[in-house]
Amino acid sequence: LQISGYLNLLANTVDNFTHGLAVAASFLVSRKVGFLTTMAILLHEIPHEVGDFAILLRAGFDRWSAAKMQLYTALGGILGACFAICAQSPKGAGETVAWILPFTSGGFLYIALVNVVPDLLEEKNPWNSVQQILLLCTGITVMVLLSLT
């Protein structure tokens, strides 16, 4: 088995931990924020987990082992949620959310900027760049509309 598979599992566990933090902290704010955060993370995770599964197969894991290891990394999300709940201040959820949500949001922004923006800058076809920017603006608009309801 290649080291890239194990590194991917470690990165996926940390990623899932931050997702668990975000979901639990969002539910501490309100049910609406919690459900919106959960849906956003699910939409992010589905293609992410498929890609991680392919990385594990390429690293030498068989299908059953790769699926089992992916399930183990999901426990990082449960640990993150438990950590967020246990870190809740006796004064209320406001102090907990005051550091967890900015921390996880910053992580998501960092990943987007490091992984997505360089690809956008390397795009040779201007029409593809316009489409990607329009889809990015559409995503931002959907987030704003959901926050208003």
Automatic annotation (TrEMBL):
Subcellular location: Membrane
Gene Ontology terms: cellular component: membrane
Catalytic reactions on record: Zn(2+)(in) = Zn(2+)(out)
Transmembrane segments annotated in the record for this chain: 69-87, 99-117, 129-148
Entry's Gene Ontology molecular function annotations: zinc ion transmembrane transporter activity
Topological type in the membrane: Multi-pass membrane protein
Source species, domain of life: Eukaryota
Signal sequence segment: none
Keyword vocabulary terms for this entry: Ion transport, Membrane, Transmembrane, Transmembrane helix, Transport, Zinc, Zinc transport
UniProt record, GO biological process: intracellular zinc ion homeostasis
Entry similarity comment: Belongs to the ZIP transporter (TC 2.A.5) family.
Protein name: Zinc transporter ZIP13
Source lineage: Eukaryota, Metazoa, Chordata, Craniata, Vertebrata
